[in-house]
Amino acid sequence: MPGGRWLDVGRRTLVMGVLNVTPDSFSDGGRWLDPDRALRHARDMVRHGADLIDVGGESTRPGAGPVPAREELRRVVPVVEALAAEGILVSVDTSKGVVAEAALRAGAAVVNDVTALRDRATARAAARHGAGVILMHMKGEPRTMQKAPRYENVMAEIADFLRARLEFALRAGIGRDKLFVDPGIGFGKTAEHNETILRRLGELRQLGHPVVVGTSRKRFIGTALGGRGIGDRLFGTAATVAAAVLRGADVVRVHDVREMSDVARMTDVLR
Ligand code: HH2
Question: 2-270: what fold?
Answer without folding.
Answer: TIM Barrel (3.20.20)
